[in-house]
Amino acid sequence: MPGDPASAMFARFAGQLQPEAIDSLRVAFGFTDEPLHQQYFTYVAHLFQGDLGLSIAYFPSKVTDVIATGLGWTLLLSGIAVIISFALGTALGVVATWKRGGWLDSVLPPVLIFLGAFPYFWLAMVLLYTLGFVLGAFPARHAYSDTIAPALSAEFILSVMQHMVLPVSAIVIASLGGWMLSMRSTMVGVLAEDYITMANAKGLSQKRIMFHYAARNALLPNITGFGMALGFVLSGSLLTEIVFSYPGQGYLLIQAVRNQDYPLMQGIFLTITLAVLGANLLVDILYVWLDPRTRAR
Amino acid sequence: MSRRLLMLCMSLLSLGGLVNCSKSPKEGAQQTPAPTAKTEAAVKATALTITQEQQASWIRNFNPLLVPGTARWPTRAGIYEPLMIYNTVKGELVPWLAVKHEWSADNKKLTLTLRPGVKWSDGQPFTAKDVAFTFELLKKHKALDFPAVWAFLESVQAKDDATVEFTLSRPFVPGMLYVVHQPIVPEHKWKDVADPVMYKNETPVATGPFTEVKVFQNQVFELGRNPHYWQQGKPAVESLRFPAYPGNDQANLALLTGELDWAGSFVPDIERVFVNKDKDNNHYWFPLVGNTTTLYVNTTKKPFDDVRVRKAISMAIDREQIVKVAMYGYTRPSDATGLSDTHDKWRNPEAVAAGDWTRLDIAKANALLDEAGFKKGEDGVRVGPDKKPLRFDVNCVTGWSDWVRAAQIITQNLKQIGIDASLKTYDFSPYFERVQKGEYDMSMGWTSDEPTPYYVYRDLMSSETLRPTGELAARNWNRFSNKEADALLKAFEGTNDPEEQKKIAHQLQMIFVQNAPVIPLFPGPSWGEYSTRRFTNFPNKDNPYSKLTPNSPPENLFVLVEVKPK
């Protein structure tokens, strides 16, 4: 990346900054010329104390404070979006394959793939314009109504849910197709297996075969994808958040990159990494429950 | 990026025609209060809703001594106040916390008399000690001295409770502006602050009209009135509200749905997009008092060191087209002095008349290049005496769509006179680093925003601001200096006689016009939109008591104390 944080600072102040002031700011930010390994050890040591340093773009706030302003909202938004699109997409995949050649199977996949090809923010903008602006059916910005303070009240929770409809829909619409297709392709394979034929021969109910015999086995690759998807959705929700002025983390990352705010970038990447790791742990637990073969004896 | 999003959004809007933006009737049927624009606005009719900063969520920081843009916007435009405020539209210095200023005969001492009866928002009196303390803080912490007042100050002393004396190390009259614009902080609160550079000042004590933080959430904050404000009966507005919008497009959308009362963003085709939505209430005012958008040329490089080449480039540029296509007709072509309407009273008509090189004249431009020794090659591109073809980049910032369009027009224009220019866009940081280091051929840019032409010309022609290529230069990105201009600037620093200053400014304009150190394109409009649905008495062209735009603190104090609820 060309430029350095100091000149980015200089840029931000559009010539109001004196060269001497930049030197003092460098000291304030903690820019040093120490050898790299030393800087690394300092970083790791600070990390264990929960200290991620000072943000440059939001000087003099701590990186942890800056991230804390939006992390919860981002996790809530993308968490719910991922769960909905995963559950809905997978269910659609199961049902579509079961009725192979039916209208669901022939119409939905191409439509969803078409929608999935749009960038998140474009769908978000279309939803914002039609449902938020023209029809006014849903609020067009922020995570909850500006006139109420956050509290554990029914009014607040309802407000949060209403504000989430459009951004969640944008993410769900864009990512639904992938889940459905991958579920469909494994389902097709599983349905050809002998044990399905046998279950049919035993005269088990169609519902039981569909969900317990076929879907449960076909679900495994999708579950693996779930953990990985969370990372992508975090970055996908970034643009959606900007369109809906959602007070999440998305805009922070862009601000950090624009200002070459390395401490903030590190902090955000760290939280994304932790979120993905956390999701993977969850997935592993799910896996053990779903697949008896993975249970250790 | 955000501007591009805005353009997309706006074209979507125009595609949909001017659909009536009123909310659906469903709203009334919902049992809970729907958190849509209209209901919110109705609830909060007492709060003036403003947008200025582009943030996704707010960080609580009200430290007025930090770099502008770090603390929340009202810190310098509502919470803390300066000693005096320069009114750009009227071109005069308005007394604020100080009522009078006086220069000593040798222009090395500036004495300010403070307004009696001013109190901090905690009821303590405001005195000269606070002023001296604030300036001492800047001296002690160089990271706070952004206006660089200690470059020319020697000492600041409180003579008595109402008198402050600034001693300068050299006569420097233009520096007064930076002295009087410095926000003043209370000594009794700040003397205990361990490190004012790292201080977020979450609960400010100040002299401004709005000092009480009533609400602070990550998506909206609200400021209430100062109970001890010194202007009797003002402000008329009960509180200010600031919802967080990450970009222009979101802010513009809020403007269209009637949530915002006051904004200062660029809106394309504003008559159709904004005013037509609600002709009675939606208004805008774009006076041409911003800085001048300018094509910078690197005068240390060949062939831009030749004034004939610079003038030829300028003559080939179709400014009318740029204004019409790139700027939606919001502005007009610049004259050769490069001054905007802020400096109208300084403008030298003779210099304007002599500056023929900002008028479109392809024939003359070609003639000038021929004369300078650049012959047209076989491919139509001119070749210099050193056999190098005239092939250059025009630098611009990615996503600044008005500039990008202007730069595109310029590159087409230059092809007509045999200069093969191509547009190169960068993100802001790398763009600005190149400009500051002088590592470019031609670049879009802007002139200084200061009230007197002194700073405009010092930035473009003085050897004081000149830095070698490769070194960061805060100003003078064109890297040009002129001995005559140096002498005139020096003379300007040493006089506070308005007539004398004007004479010098006229001569500076002549030198600028003769040398064309940069190529001015158009004076920048200062963006400002407002809605009279809930509040009135905003400045406009019929009542130009101040700039409308919220983008230039501390001038916004004029607006904040004058706006009234309907």
How would you describe what is shown here?
The complex is a heterodimer of chains A (about 300) and B (about 575). Chain A has about 300 residues and is mainly alpha-helical. Helix content of chain A is about 75%, strand content about 0%. Chain A has 11 helices and no strands. The model of chain A has no long low-confidence stretch (mean pLDDT about 80). Chain B is about 30% helix and about 20% strand. The two termini of chain B are about 35 Å apart. Chain B has helices at about 1-15, 25-30, 35-45, 130-140, 175-180, 185-190, 250-255, 270-275, 305-315, 320-325, 350-355, 360-370, 400-415, 430-435, 455-460, 485-495, 500-515, 555-560; strands at about 45-50, 85, 90-95, 100-105, 110-115, 155-160, 165-170, 210-215, 220-225, 240-245, 260-265, 280-285, 290-295, 375, 380-385, 390-395, 420-425, 440-445, 520-525, 530, 535, 565. Chain B is built from 18 helices and 22 strands. In chain B, helix 1 runs parallel beside helix 7 (about 250-255), helix 10 (about 320-325) packs antiparallel against helix 13 and helix 15 (about 455-460) runs antiparallel to helix 16 (about 485-495). The radius of gyration of chain B is 25 Å and the shape is globular. Chains A and B meet through helix 1, helix 2, helix 4, helix 6 and helix 7 of A and helix 1, helix 3, helix 7 and helix 14 of B.
The total count of helices of chain B amounts to 18
- Show the largest interface: A-B, 72 and 78 residues
What value does the average pLDDT of chain B take? 86
Low-confidence stretches of chain B: 1-44
SSE inventory with pairings:
The complex is a heterodimer of chains A (297) and B (566).
Chain A: H1 5-12, H2 19-29, H3 36-48, H4 63-98, H5 103-116, H6 120-134, H7 154-191, H8 194-202, H9 206-243, H10 250-258, H11 262-290
Helix pairs in contact in A: 4-5, 4-7, 4-9, 4-11, 5-7, 6-7, 6-9, 7-9, 8-9, 9-11, 10-11
Chain B: H1 2-15, H2 26-29, H3 37-43, E1 47-49, E2 84-87, E3 92-95, E4 98-103, E5 109-114, H4 128-140, E6 153-160, E7 163-168, H5 176-180, H6 187-190, E8 210-216, E9 220-225, E10 239-243, H7 248-256, E11 262-263, H8 270-273, E12 282-284, E13 292-297, H9 307-316, H10 319-326, H11 349-354, H12 362-371, E14 375-376, E15 382-383, E16 391-397, H13 401-415, E17 420-426, H14 428-437, E18 442-446, H15 453-461, H16 483-493, H17 498-515, E19 519-523, E20 529-531, E21 535-536, H18 556-562, E22 564-565
Parallel strand pairs in B: 1-10, 16-17, 16-18
Antiparallel strand pairs in B: 2-3, 4-5, 5-7, 6-7, 8-9, 9-10, 11-20, 12-20, 13-18, 13-19, 14-15, 21-22
Helix pairs in contact in B: 1-7, 9-12, 10-13, 15-16, 15-17, 16-17
